[in-house]
Amino acid sequence: MHRNAAKLGTPDRPTIWVGVNYWSRTGGPLMWRSYDGTVVDEELRVLAAHGITLTRSFLYWPDFMPEPDRLDPVMLGRFDDFLDRHARAGMTSIPTFLVGHMSGQNWDPAWREDRDVIADDWFVDRQAWYVRECARRWKDHPAVAGWLLSNEIPIYADWRSRGIGTLDHRRVTAWAKTLIGAVREAGAEQPVSIGDGAWGVEMTGADNGFRLRDLEELVDFQGPHVYRMDDDQVRQHLGAAFTCELVGTGGKPVVMEEFGVSSDYTSEEHAAHYYRQTLHHTLLAGATGWIPWNNTDYDALADQEPYSHHPFEMHFGLTDDTGAPKKQLLEVRDFARTLGEVDFARLTRPDTRVSLVVSSYLEKLYPFTQPEDTAAVLSATRQAYVAAREADLPIGVAREADGLPEDSALYLVPSTKQLTAPTWRALRAAAERGATVYASWFAGTHIVQRGAWWPKLDETFGVAKQLRYGLTDRITDDTLHLTFVQDFGDLPAGTRLAFAVAGTEHSRTFLPVEPRGAEVVATDAHGRPALLSHRVGAGRLVLATYPLEHMAAVTPDVNPEPTWRLYAALAAEAGARPEVSVPDGRVVTGEMEHADGHRVVWFLSQHPEHLTVTPRVNAGVLRDLDGKEITSVDLPPFGVFVARRNP
To answer: Which pLDDT score is estimated for 543?
Structure first.
């Protein structure tokens, strides 16, 4: 299975963006009114000294377009100067046109008069004129690296709903086509995208009108905005990476257009950990550009909106309000250095034989299904991704809606209530061809049509289900103990794994079965089959009778939990072991392939204390970036170590 790691630019001249979202500390969104080029120079100098070569800049719409047919010449001139200063600093910028929404407030041009942002033809025409005129003015400026139409415009278009259920996807696509067309009509050839945050139905299960599939053919890159809140540290560290995997399934370059943390929410040390983890995990998940939020703090603007009513927004900066670097900026500096040391522009993600199946019920809006179904797909699949990465599997994310890849050795179907009937047929065919297909039972989180919608479950998995109509078989234990009754992958007979039990009254249930051709691999504490393997054709189907991933997904502070050991065993059974791994779920590894044939290997600790691990290397020799052979890896708290491997 191919895994996306597309880059901007051309194959012989790829472009890697290491940048930052930028408002000057002289004014934040109102910086153009109090523009100070000397301060801009100082801010750019600090950023450039720490490896940042690009800014995402913003045209504050009410100031730049004070009337529907007039642009403000003073503001345009100040942006001219802003770009000139970038060029002198050896930096570039991505102008963002429609701002619009920013940091907890919406900002209307005085002449909007409550017109619909997306659907009012006259208002869209005025936006197109504005975009066209700005793009025409700066299209040939050497400091312009790309263009963004907006900033989180679903919130601006309808702040109450964030567009969910109120923005028509056909109108949204027409709007985007019109405005991107205006950029191209101006003669601008730089990459362009929307700036909407990638929060559409394919990513969240909630339809805000900005559908990834509809917009993909229009944009040159995808730009997720990720500000996750979680109850598990490993899920938090890998949350943005999973987003990159989902948004990258269409093959366009993925740029982490926004991510970051307010210093009001965390210590600077932990903010630095979060930056480090997010940068490196998203790299391994296919991102090829990074633009954190944002360049500086704004303490001097405490009386100015939006900071007066959203004071935490003052402190997302990589520098403090005096311009001094914070630890987050040092992490970006170190990351940029690593990109240079490993020649990242010539790295790609190797193909994989391990596929994580994402149910199409996340995005398809099938009739007579429940909103809770999409949320359950997202949470269980995200947790499965975490477990797969803890097992060091080079996971590929396969959307059911695109059809399953046919070249995988292992398919993971985690705590999935709903797949379509043709997909179940395809999974059975994959097993007959020689693949290992794993699925875990999940009845769903609500009572409506409760139960797994799996056609021919008995025949597929070689069991006889003992279910009763309309009733559930509740898990009464607080901990699920699985005991392996035969060797399975790296797990010898007698191995015992303990899983936290959790869920709603509907989902905290198991599947009672009797084997009818399947072999029992593991039993629960009551002697019931908990893991079964059914050989079909040249391969097998493996059934977990408990919703392992769902239970972990709704349990705080659970990772690493033992699903990663099960996944590692499944990979071994399928003949899809990772080339490099560590026998410790607290450390995540991943590889990239260089154009000259060598591999670059990442080791990322998820642990708050020092760790030393001994990698298992299937082929080749592991060396540090200075060329010294290594047999163990020392990792500081939440640390990262990068090595090379010659297969």
So the answer is: 98
